Each structure stands twice: as structure tokens, then as C-alpha cells.
Predict the 3D structure of the following.
Amino acid sequence: MKLLSIRGISDCPAIGKIICIGQNYAKHAREMNFDIPKAPIFFLKPPSAVIFNHEQIVLPSISSDVHHEVELTVLIGTGGKNISRETALQHVAGYGVGLDMTMRDIQLEAKKNGLPWTLAKGFDTSAPLSEFVPAQMIGDPSLLGLELTIGGSLRQSGSTSDMIFPVASLIASISQYMTFETGDVIFTGTPEGVAQVHHGDKLDACLKSADGSALTSISVTVA
Ligand code: MG
């Protein structure tokens, strides 16, 4: 059982289900030649996919094109069902940064054949997660910056203000179908700039406040 880490809090929950959102930034949907979604696209990763700071991503041998996707992550503190958009952010315990590692070749093949993305998105080490920052220290999650560097060079830089479906709307939508429980995590989608990673790469992902200061970060290497 993996325990999550929330800054300044000793009694952290075990990780629950991981719900991920696809194509939540228009520029990323366009770079993939995907349509802009009219409703949120959901998929799941298993909790066993999670790794933490300073751990290693292991590239599965069946793929020759594993991509990075830097994303705002949302930790649910208070569970619930049919949560309203107005009260949604009260269910959040913290915000962090994560990497939705994706076997792009396997995903595109699945997409072409109308098959699930589960393997492409849920393999071991596909969900690096940072320490979470308590929600009350963040306030508005739509004014945050996301950044990913590889070997020190900037690869992805985005703002959560560009999300097609903002955090409160995602929580409301998901909770119509899946009951949220303490320890559940949402990956909220990636801005543009996704690309392949290679053996030996060092990935540094950072969540930034509106004024550009670092809130939390994660550093992982590709084995
Ligand atoms: Mg993603």
C-alpha cells in the first residue's frame, strides 16, 4: 500500500483510484490531431503505477515511443457523490504535479482500433507523483503554472488557466459516475509539448504559483 505525502501533514492517506483526463488543453489536443472534446474524457491508472520523487521510470519493452505529459494533480480529501461544481473544491486536500507517462505508439494503436488505453497509460512507473501542497495554501487552482525540463532544458510550460474543463467541473463530472474517496487522485491533462523520453533522461516537473514561485516538484530519471 502506497501512502501519499502532503506537506506538513503526518497522517496522509493511502492512494486510492487514479482518474485521468485526456485532451484537456486545446493546444495539446491539436498537436495530437485529436478533436477538442465536448465532455471530459476519463481513463484510469492503477495505484501500482505510482512512483515518487527520485524514483525511476522503467520503459516497457513493448513500446518504442514513451512520452512525458506534465499535469496538475488533485488529491481528494473528503469523498462524495454527485458533488456540485460550487462545492467541488471543498473536497480537495491538496494539489501537486505528476507525469502521465504514456506509451504513445500503444495508445494510438488502441485509439485506431477503438480499444481501451489501459495498458498505454497504466503500466508500472507510469504515474510519478510529487508531494501535495495543502489546498488552503493554493486557493484558486486555475492560476497555476506547470513546467517540465529534461536534462535542464525546458520541454513543457503551461498554465492551468488553459484547461478546457477546470478542476471544479472535473470533480463534479466524475462524481456523477464514480464515488470519490479519500486518497483518490485526479490527473487533469497536459498542456502542449509532449515528446519521447529516452534511457538516462532526468525529468524535473514543477508546479508554480501565479507569481512564478515553485510550489512543489518532482525529479525522476528514466532507467
Ligand atoms: Mg495526460
